[in-house]
Task: structure prediction
Amino acid sequence: MLREVIKILEGLDLKPSDHRIYTLLLERKELSVREIAKELNLSTRFVRERLRELHRRGIIRRRLVEKGWIGYVYGAEDPKVVVARIKSHLLSEFAKLEKILESF
Result:
C-alpha cells in the first residue's frame, strides 16, 4: 500500500524529498525537524520548509511538545486520510473546471 500512496503523491507536484520525509514519518511515527534532517541528510532549514508545505497540504500533522524546549514533532497522516483529502481537492477542482467549461 505504501508504494501506491507514494505514486499518488508523485502526481501531486511534490518534491522527491517530500516523498522521503513522508515515508520516513510513516515508518518512524513522530520526529523533530532535526531528527528528520539527520536521518535524510538534509539541512534543517530545507526540512522545515518542506514540512511547512506538507502540513499545509494536510499530508503530515504536527504536535507541540515541551521537553526542555518548545517545538514541534511531525507525523505522517494516515494514507487513507491523505487519499481522501486529495480526492476531495480534485473533485472540487473538477467542479470549478466544469463551471468554466459551461460558459463556452
Remarks:
- The helical segments are 2-10, 16-28, 33-40, 44-56, 79-102.
- The longest helix spans residues 79-102.
- The mean pLDDT is 86.
- The longest strand covers residues 60-66.
